[in-house]
Amino acid sequence: MEKNTEFTTSVAMCTYNGAKYLESQLRTILNQTIPPDEIIVCDDCSKDNSVSICRNILSGWDGKWEVVRNEQNLGFKKNFQKAISLCHGDIIFLSDQDDVWNTKKLEKMLPVFHDPNVVLAFHDATLVNENLEQLYPSFWRTLGFNPSDFSKGDYRIVFAHNVMQGAACCFRRKLFEIAAPFPLEAIHDEWLLLVGLSIGKVIPVSQTLLQYRQAQNAIGGMPLTIPDKIRKWWKTFNKGFDIHREYLKSRSQIFTLLVERNREQGNYNQFSANIVKFNEFLSTRIRKINNRVDRLNKSKFNQWYFPFEAKKQWLKDWIYFLANLNSKNKGVSR
After folding, report:
1. CA 71, CA 184: separation in Å to the nearest integer?
2. For a tag on the chain, would you pick the N or C end, based on fewer CB atoms within 10 A?
3. Tens of pLDDT along 1-54?
4. Residue 135: CB partners within 8 Å, gap ≥ 6?
5. How far is CA 68 from CA 10, 154, 261, 324, in A?
6. What is the DSSP letter of 204?
7. What is the pTM of this model?
8. Cα distance between residue 6 and residue 13, in whole Å
9. What is the DSSP pairing of strand 100-101 with strand 201-213?
């Protein structure tokens, strides 16, 4: 195994009742063609033998390692923040407890940091079942993510939803120092991505360097077919208005916090400037669907979303607006 000499590297892994797959995941980290310098594991009060598995495997490794068991359950967001804070490497890789890394992951990802302006990189993943049998070849495709658009500076997809899987990313330690503390309103991986875009370059590496198990993951998964989407929409139609309102509220909270953080820290580039404008756009959407009796301007959506997403977002706003208006009219009649 070749040793990396340009950067020191750390892996921050979080565990919680992960005994079933931990050993296989750790082995793929230890068997990297360019092994990490350090592995930090933070266990969030597991009730199984996750801690002993980690310690037994890492005790035979000649790199630096530490297994920390939290005194109380922190939840995955705070636990990742803690794990990262304990890392000393120049470049930090995040790891879940049940995935499988390609043994060339570090070898393929580290070269992007030869550019000193790159603060974060992430790669694609293959979706697999519990037995590592392929379910879908590309996680990015399930998200509608086009790395070519992103690499050209078209970041419209991040305004709609998160596109970066934490277990598929690596970043400079200085990014964490700027991004911490992670706000409760945001998932840690999306927050790192948004802050990264606000301060430097973020590089998508178009390779599937991870087998992403779907057994226990709360996010991700197989893409839905059109009939599946229709059935899902029909089943949740009555709840759809509340879901959309909460979605807009959540996006507004995240981007408001980002605007404030960027202002406090003096982070300013084209993306951070666009964040301010996008947050104003979100505020206008929320105000219009709740209060104003005027038609929503469809052209505004095209500035912030790709065409299909723009139509979907506009249509949801319009349906919510009409439903809300109808509800108010009924209230007046009574």
Report:
1. 20
2. C
3. 566 568 999 999 999 999 999 999 999 999 999 999 999 999 999 999 999 999
4. 127, 128, 129, 214, 222
5. 15, 40, 30, 50
6. E
7. 0.90
8. 23
9. antiparallel
